[in-house]
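Pasting as-is:
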Amino acid sequence: MAWNEPGNNDKDPWKNKGGSNQGPPDLDDLLKDLGQKVSGVFGGKPSGSGGSGKSFSSVGIILAVIIAALVYAFSGFYTIKEAEQGIVLRFGQYAGTEDPGLRWKWTFIERIIPVDMQTTRDLPAAGFMLTQDENVVRVEMQVQYRVVDARNYVFSVTDADDSLSQSLDSALRYVVGHAAMDDILTSGRETIRQSVWEELEKIIEPYNLGLIVVDVNFKDARPPEEVKDAFDDAISAQEDEVRFLREAEAYARGIEPRARGRVKRMEQEAIAYKEQTILDAEGAVARFEKILPEYQAAPEVTRQRMYLTAMEKVYSNTSKVMVDVEGGNNMMYLPLDKIIQQQGSAPRVIPQATTGLSQAPVSTNTKPSTSGRSDRFSSGRN
């Protein structure tokens, strides 16, 4: 039969403890035993007197107070990282800021909110927008910002990051709505970026968000997929136009210096020719002035000498042939230039006919008549 069945209840362990019927142990007895053991550990006398219970109560309270004080003291230490700044809230009210390092706060009284002050954060914005010329374009832009005032960043608005995101979207739609689609897709991207930056700073300035905009990046702008091919062709044509203009400018920059160089060379050659002509004329005049007194002193001799000099210049550059027209129908001549070139070789006979009449050999040693030569010279002078 189980000990807890009705009827005989002698097997109840709480009543038969120690061999006699006893009730459950009293809580005071348990605490007293525990106090005696603790007081024995700390040098007290583990007796059953009432003084030892009083001693245990005071020691336990002191020990608990000391442990609680230590736990409270150590729980107040905290660390603020190098890139952060701590916002101190005392009973929920702003009480100041803390610099990086190891700090201590009143637990349950003060609260610390760390704020990253050095990290550059990114915030994207994108969407389909209507341009000034009533075209739809999808624009993607990204803003980079940093916290400069921790108090304003935490307390000026409910969520500074969300406020900045809404301001960026508003500024982007305002600028795109006042720009043409061609400018957004092609050459006006930098202008759009600068305009969005300026408009964003104007929007967030009254709210004192404690933020500074570091940069605004224009990531992408494209038309809807339905008309993307047509816009791609237009953009390619504009890029070709710019490329052709650049090539033309490069060609002009290459041709112009060479043309200027040729002009300069021609000018210098003309100046040199002019100076040479003037010097030649001055030399001719000087030579004539020197010859004139000689001519006036002996005109015939001077005329004869000038004639011989002129003929020497003329005959020095021409082939010379001596012809003998005396002695019948045969005309004989001597090619003096050939004879001079063949000096040192054996004499040979050179036949030649010029009139179709009978030919006669002429020896290279034949000398022409001097009378005919003098007559020709005299007739030439006349």
